[in-house]
Amino acid sequence: MTYRGRHRRRNKGRVLRATLSGAALALTAAATIISTSQAAGSDNPGPLTRLTSSSEINKLQLHENLVAESTLDTLQSGMGGNVGVGAVLKSANHPMRNKADCAGTEAAALPVEPAATRAYCWDSGDATTQKWLPQSVTTSGDADNDGRWGTDRVILAGWTHNDHKAGEPAADKGLARVAFIDANDPKNLRYRWVLLVAPLSGGKDFGAVRSHVGGMVWYQDKLIVTAKNGADHDNALFVFDMNRILQADVNSTEVGKVSGGWSARGYQYVMPAIGSYNLTGGACSASNDNARPCFASVSLDRTSTPDSLVANEWFSSGGTEPARLWRYYYSTASDRTGLLGSNASDIVNADEAYETKAVGLQGVLSHKPSGASEANWYTGYAPGSRDKHGTLWRQNESVAKAAQCGSGGTSYACWGQHTESLSYWQETGELWTLTEWAANKDNEWKPPVIPERVLYAVPLSAVDSSVQ
Fold it and tell me: Are strands 190-200 and 269-279 parallel, antiparallel or unpaired?
């Protein structure tokens, strides 16, 4: 299905909820950051096991909470109206470095097998900061079949403030921001930061969204991101609207309405949340797979019918707890572009779920090859120690395979170092991901070391060929 409504505001035929649920959008709670996992690079997890019991599937059930359209309109009008993705791209002020200009430690983070065909490193300040961690990626290839938003090719990368970094101001804790990357010229990528916020006081104010952004999906005109808030592990998905990107007009350390206008802690642009999805059963747990799962990452599957959002949970590779993978279908209603399929009670049910014996999942992707009877699930794992490559498994209900490398092809640790979420650009056939960094015992690195942060793409066909 080609999405053709991206330049129009969605219809208002559906009554929207007045506020986001407190559990799903706690603006004042400190964010809980999922730490870099420590997945083994050699143990074959075997085939996926389908989950069929209603008690298990019900643990994945979501409730949809949408902000009142009047609240969103009030905020948008008060801030001067939507500026659009195009304006953000035109103001991009951070150049990305091409692979040839990446430092040795950055280039070393790239996969051994299969090789990356495109790779980029961040602007110098973002490449070395300990304050922020790159966590997720999605593209205009997710947004539309033609791979573009209007005429632009765009990559989005979600970064989370590093709560584990000692001495950081309390006002920064848990902040979430998105790099809007102008990818029209493959040799000259540039980006601009956009801060994620949420409307307050009926749209007369906004506050910072404080959340771990482990996964993102830009589908049609909506951006869905993972959200994990608070010590009680409230877990949700936040929803943002690409037709509601707003501009701050006061440069200060505050977030929200201030004397003389609007401030976003130094950022020029903000995206206010227009809704959320929270687990109906309450708080999630990352301690075992008998509880409600915490969202670790999400991605888009355009090969399902209808298109779907897939998700995974995360457990430390230090244990043996099997992890769950599951999917939600998107709505096909014309007045619900980019939203998940819900019933009259605003309930969203999982449409498929599996369990894998693999641990330490950092990203997941589902893709059904043409003519195949079942989808392949690509699951990425990160090693626990610095300078170690991870593994990208291709799993289904029959088998698990991964590329082999090293002397005599004895290792599965061939993927990138500490990779995060996965995204498939259907129009180009590329699988995109990005790497985070592995901290030492003091959760820091010392100059002049440049951490292993790189954004890269590998043809999905090359991944499949490497595991034959």
Answer: parallel
